Amino acid sequence: MSDNSRPWIVTPLLESGVLSKAAGCRIFLKLENLQPSSSFKSRGIGNMVLTSIDQHKQDPSDQRPLHFYTSSGGNAGLACVTAAKSLGYKASVVVPTSTDEWTVDKLYASGASEVIIHGDSWFYADEYLRKTVIPKAEECGEKGIYIHPFDHPAVWAGASTMIDELKEHMPEKPDVIICSVGGGGLFSGIMQGLDRVGWGEDVQVLPVETLGADSLAQSVAKGELVTLPGITSVATSLGAIRVAEHAFKEAQRPNVKTVVLDDAEACAACWRFLDDERYLVEPACGVSVALAYDGRLKHYLGKLSPDAKVVIIVCGGSKISLELLNKYKQKYQEPSEALAAKYRS
């Protein structure tokens, strides 16, 4: 398919004067929050949708209508619905019972055929989708296509396209790339893209998580995949209790350093980023932006030269509003200031 039919866009890469001054080096923002679904998920999920359509067309004997299905309490679901609708197909989402009414309404507004609420967590929502929802759809004559939120080669390949854009916009390779990690689809794509453009061993990559959603960091520390008992972080978009095995393998490269920050740090970065750059992002994104503030980069990487180029993937996310951000500020402003003081001391 042509680039015009891709359900994602080329996003800007902007150097931030405010964040550069705060960090003491050159901070560049890859604005994935501007994707059609408001997050980087448009790339990976969109690519998996495109791949599935192409595969279906290779079998002219199968004339069943395609219907895309995913399990997600937020961004992956929105990306699947947005991508499918833009290409003329139906999409439905199974969400866990913890999903708020606002998110369900947004999925419908984005074009979801159906939003099914089932299970106490993503794991059970996903299981119900694969074992019950899709088989029932196929009994009714549809071709049900399962879209995994993060653990699939097509998802990683889609996410990797941002590195091709990065090389075009920044011919001299960056020194550091910072990205948030949930299940690991974005991180896996970044590592794949770095290899493809020849930067695989030369760029320091910092995958960042919040405490309580840190399955990657715990897995790296123990040298084996760790399954969290549950997600206790407010950054629920990072809520994979077990990171993808591929992401775990990629995280063991010598140029990768995992970082875990507190919810208070992630939320504080959200309201500071809104003030500094006029972008409203959720805590799952704010946790990466937080590294530009209060000396955190120096803490985790040592002193960087003023000319060092650091790219932050502004992954975006839709699970945020001004009302919710104000609630976070009331709850976390004092503890966030105490944490910031430790880095500055």
Automatic annotation (TrEMBL):
One protein family per Pfam: PALP
PROSITE patterns in the record: DEHYDRATASE_SER_THR
Tryptophan synthase beta chain-like PALP domain: residues covered: 10-316
Enzyme type, top EC level: lyase
Single GO MF annotation: aspartate ammonia-lyase activity
Entry keyword set: Lyase, Pyridoxal phosphate
Swiss-Prot/TrEMBL cofactor(s): pyridoxal 5'-phosphate
CDD domains: L-Ser-dehyd (cd06448)
InterPro entries linked to this entry: Ser/Thr_Dehydratase, Ser/Thr_deHydtase_PyrdxlP-BS, TrpB-like_PALP, TrpB-like_PALP_sf
Catalytic activity: L-serine = pyruvate + NH4(+)
Entry EC no(s): 4.3.1.17
Similarity-based family: Belongs to the serine/threonine dehydratase family.
Name of the protein described by the UniProt record: L-serine ammonia-lyase
Native source organism of the sequence: Exophiala sideris
Gene designation: CHA1_1
